[in-house]
Amino acid sequence: MKTKVFLVSMCLFLLACVAPATAQLPDLPDAISLRSSTRAFNEVYYFAIHDGLIYVKERVDGASWQLLGNTGSPENLLGNPVTTDAMEEISVDGPILIAVSETRQIYYCKNGYAAPGSISWTDHWGTPLGAGAGVSLPENIRGWALSQDDLLRNKFYYDQNGNAYPCMVTTIYALFENGREIHFTDPWTPPDWGYRIAGPFRDRFIAENLSAAASTLFVINRYGDMYTHQNDFDIGGGNPFFNYTYEDDVHYATNDAILNFSLVRKRRVPDQVWYNQPKIHGRITKNITILFPEDGAPGESDRILRVEGVNEEGTPGYFEKNLEGIFWHFVETPGRLIPEEDFIENPPENMSHLTLGDAPEYAFSGTMTNLIHGDVEAELTGFSLVASPAELRLKTKGGTWITLPLHHHFTLRNNVREHPGEDGDFVDLKGAIEIPAELRSSEDKEVTDLLRRYFYVGKGEEKRFVNISMEAKTDAVKLHTTSLSMKMAFSK
């Protein structure tokens, strides 16, 4: 009998030695109202990173925190770990989750509404079709955020002509170390950070932090000045399967998002306007959040902005308003302690002019050429690889200079490039030359002749934009009209 008891005791001891210890759950908040690099939420769950593991909590009364999946690390469909690296950062928007490991590798999950044990991850990202080799989050950035614009929640967006188009874009935006450059990557683009969106003030605004949701970006500077802007790869003109235009009078009698998905119907390329949000009258931090509300209406305007701060009594919480709202209201979050060093200056007036850096813009001289009509002296000024428009100046035979806005936007690349156009090689762009009404109706025959011969725009015609293709880099630009009737070459 003693022998049996001894054997049983030994077995229990050995089992205790090899059995995994039940991890003690960390002390995590009951709820999450502001997103950060280690805290996130969607309509169903809260998420948190702690000691290299991902925790999840359902957003219902009585729920408790638990490890995500079997291990708290990214797992595949079979429940097996995708990596053994510790997780350091997380971002969530709708059903999409992004986790970043200690090596900066990005892990991607598409079913973030599923039960915690059914959530699956991959380290694949980029061409072809999201199955690329993967991408890493850049070092030394000021902030980053995931955005998911989809048919399930937002359903569609309106272009600046008021036409509705379906939403189907996942984006990760990153605010680089200089505070000016906003780079982004998309699962179906090359796995790099070579795509950029021009920040406020033609890419000169120096932001302290960035948040994003449903393809809408939200930035703040060190004086509490805030701006928002809607843009992603499809909206901004990158998708080669869509028909883009700069025209501002394209309207469809049947404005249905599904019908407008037709590859024939024209999507307006957005102006690079960032909307200045009203100042908050109170003490705030740079910790900002933008989110698509649970009961949000389709379209681009239903977003909620939140900014961490304290009220007049010093109670911690956040200021909140709708994207298009005028007034902020305060929501208390008792128990939350905000370190004094997190607060920023927040004067009542706009101080953006004190946080404007230098953004590279270039000036070139060149020639416009037509095989039949010969050469025309040309200049290109205020050209940026990111910010649009630039000014195209052409000299008529009589010596008169005319100025035409030159608009451009990014398009699809097939190769990995971290700094296209700045790496010594050309980057392809699409765009349009705008012919102002006063030039189209000019009484100067040399002006109207130039427009007719090189751009096929007759005097008095309503045609306002001439589509072009461009190759650009920091020391040279080439462009031609799609009809091949005109070419231009510029260099320093």
User: What integer value in Å does the Rg equal?
Assistant: 27 Å
Number of DSSP E strands: 31
Number of spatially distinct domains? 3
Average pLDDT level: 92
What multimeric state do the chains show? single chain
SS-based structural class? Answer: mainly beta
Largest sheet: 8 strands, antiparallel, barrel
| Residues in helices, as a percent range | under 10%
How far apart are the termini?
Answer: 97 Å
What low-confidence regions span 5 or more consecutive residues with pLDDT below 50? 1-22
**What fraction of residues sit in β-strands?**
35-45%
Structural account:
Residues 1-23 form the signal peptide. Keywords: Signal. The chain is built from five helices and 31 strands. An eight-stranded antiparallel β-barrel has the order 24-25-26-27-28-29-30-31. A four-stranded antiparallel beta sheet has the order 1-2-3-4, with no helix packed on it. A four-stranded antiparallel beta sheet has the order 8-11-12-13, with no helix packed on it. It is elongated and about 80 Å long. The chain has helices at 2-18, 200-203, 257-260, 437-440, 445-455, and strands at residues 39-41, 45-50, 53-58, 66-67, 87-93, 96-101, 106-109, 143-149, 156-158, 164-166, 169-175, 182-185, 195-197, 209-213, 216-220, 226-230, 243-245, 266-268, 275-277, 283-291, 304-310, 316-322, 329-332, 362-370, 374-383, 390-395, 401-410, 427-434, 465-473, 476-481, 487-491. The model is unreliable at 1-22 (pLDDT under 50).
